[in-house]
Amino acid sequence: MSQTVLSLKNVAISQEGNTILSHINLDVNHGEFIYIIGKTGSGKSSLMKTLYADLPLTEGEGHVVDFDLATLKEDDIPFLRRKIGIVFQDFKLLPDRSVKDNMLFVLKATGWTDNDEMSRKIEEVLDKVGMKDFANKMPHQLSGGEQQRVAIARALLNDPELILADEPTGNLDPQTSSEVLEVLRKINANGKTILMATHDYALLMKFPSKTLKCEDARIFEVVQRTA
To answer: How many CA within 13 A on the CB side of residue 100?
Structure first.
């Protein structure tokens, strides 16, 4: 595995014919934790969607976990996404399945077949996020913070090289947001690379890290001023 998990060179991102971001040059190395900030509509989510191939890369060079985004074929997208963990703002848990069955759905969809191996993996990732005792709960029985912990565990199932977290605390109160971010930072400390889009500047002050800002169709690094 190369040291660089993500590399973009002279990339422009467009949606419905409109240029959202341009002249993007970005390298993310293994083990980094990077925030992406910016106002609503500044391009944070469009960047994330490009990285997991929900939006095609049509201009510039982009490599993510050793996949070339510019030449990526539709058949390759599932393989790319197995190497990327994605955490969404709205959790996206299947409401009619237990926590364990949500996990099983992902594992089976990505080629796992051994029941014992799947059970071990589910227990392992739930333990990492402090949700081991909630495997048989339904999503509606969990708080927002607990659901997001499950969503983070789900993102870890296939041992991804990169985790993309798109506003993962957007629907949570400040205390729960801090708890969820502590989970992400712990995962990062164990070697996972994390790119997190957020508008929560309080979290940046509490948990400072490298920060990129989307503004005026560009992305640039900003220097944090900590209290």
So the answer is: 11
